[in-house]
């Protein structure tokens, strides 16, 4: 910048009113767009599974399992089964036939309120 330009810039700046001795700090970071977190979360795919039950067996019993073996589970026959989303229990359901596939009928479900999440 030449000296002549500096002088004319100083003259222009001198005409501006001085409100504060401190220069104003301007945040150059662009504002992030507001996102509706619950609405975004509704699009995340999850895997639903129906857990029939479980059984604790010794390694010897496990090694003895064969094609016709029967292992008794801890769930009573006819009792609703555990419904899980990505491995987390969310309710209870029972098995139904849906066309040519098995399906599940929800019996009870925990409160899955995505709207309660803050963004």
Describe the sheet with the most strands. Answer: 4 strands, antiparallel
Number of helices: 3
CATH topology of one domain: Surface presentation of antigens (SPOA)
Order of helices and strands: HHEHEEE
What's the CATH first level of one domain? Mainly Beta
Which architecture of one domain per CATH? Roll
Give the uncertain stretches in residue-range form. Answer: none
Relative helix content: 10-25%
Number of strands: 4
The outline comes out as: elongated
The percent range for strand residues is 15-25%
Radius of gyration: 33 Å
Summarize model confidence as the mean pLDDT: 80
Q: What is the secondary structure topology, with strand pairs?
A:
Blueprint: H1 3-15, H2 37-41, E1 48-51, H3 59-63, E2 81-85, E3 88-98, E4 101-109
Antiparallel strand pairs: 1-2, 2-3, 3-4
Could you please describe the fold and organization of this structure?
It is found in: Cell membrane. InterPro entries: FliN-like_C (IPR001543), FliN/MopA/SpaO (IPR051469), FliN_T3SS_HrcQb (IPR001172), SpoA-like_sf (IPR036429). It is a peripheral membrane protein. It holds the Pfam family FliMN_C. This protein is α+β, with helices and mostly antiparallel strands and 119 residues long. The protein has a domain at 46-65 and 72-110: SpoA-like (Surface presentation of antigens (SPOA)), CATH 2.30.330. It is built from 3 helices and 4 strands. It has a 4-stranded antiparallel beta sheet with strand order 1-2-3-4, with no helix packed on it.
């Amino acid at each position: 910048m030449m000296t002549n330009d500096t002088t004319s810039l100083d003259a222009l700046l001198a005409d501006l009113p001085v409100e504060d001795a401190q220069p104003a700090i301007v945040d150059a970071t662009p504002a992030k767009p507001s996102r509706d977190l619950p609405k975004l979360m509704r699009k995340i795919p999850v895997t639903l599974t129906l857990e029939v039950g479980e059984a604790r067996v010794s390694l010897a019993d496990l090694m003895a399992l064969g094609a016709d073996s029967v292992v008794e589970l801890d769930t009573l026959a006819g009792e609703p089964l555990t419904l899980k989303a990505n491995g987390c229990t969310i309710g209870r359901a029972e098995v139904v036939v849906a066309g040519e596939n098995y399906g599940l009928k929800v019996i009870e479900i925990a409160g899955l309120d995505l709207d309660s999440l803050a963004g």
